[in-house]
């Protein structure tokens, strides 16, 4: 079964508390989403492999550690996932960025894919799929299905808020995908929104509602 990490870092808990508030404006909300993603990225990259490299310092020649030629990719689920990309790129600027576009059918709550653009060598990369909200899990499951069809083997999923139902569904569908969660909330309501949650992350990131 996949490893699930629920982040307990004080900075993450503090920032999630701020983005939950109704009065938090678009600019602050967007910045906080990016900062939380950066902190989660720190955890998600904890086991990247290193290699020894000889360099010259201003004082002497020495051996330092560098990432061992690891190819990484960040795949946001559109559109809310875009808000997590800048923070992650701060830590891993060489990562390629692909996009998977999905929306939730308002009647069935099922995900509908409308766009997929991935790096040409995606199957060779360690992939971080990102979406602020893991509600039913449908979009995450379908996005990962798409990536596996393209040959991806090393996939991790990062979200900021998760409902227990979505977490369970994602684990069942993809037991080989590790999951990093900022906060595990109480439940889904009858409309498929996470409780207590923070509303529609996409609308709040882009100021469209």
From TrEMBL:
Binds 1 Mg(2+) ion per subunit. The magnesium is bound as Mg-PRPP. One of its GO terms (molecular function) is uracil phosphoribosyltransferase activity. One of its GO terms (cellular component) is cytoplasm. It catalyses: UMP + diphosphate = 5-phospho-alpha-D-ribose 1-diphosphate + uracil. Uracil binds at residues 194, 199-201. Its cofactor is Mg(2+). Keywords: Allosteric enzyme, Glycosyltransferase, GTP-binding, Magnesium, Nucleotide-binding, Transferase. Gene3D superfamilies: 3.40.50.2020. HAMAP family: Upp_B. Catalyzes the conversion of uracil and 5-phospho-alpha-D-ribose 1-diphosphate (PRPP) to UMP and diphosphate. This is Uracil phosphoribosyltransferase. It comes from Eubacterium cellulosolvens (strain ATCC 43171 / JCM 9499 / 6).
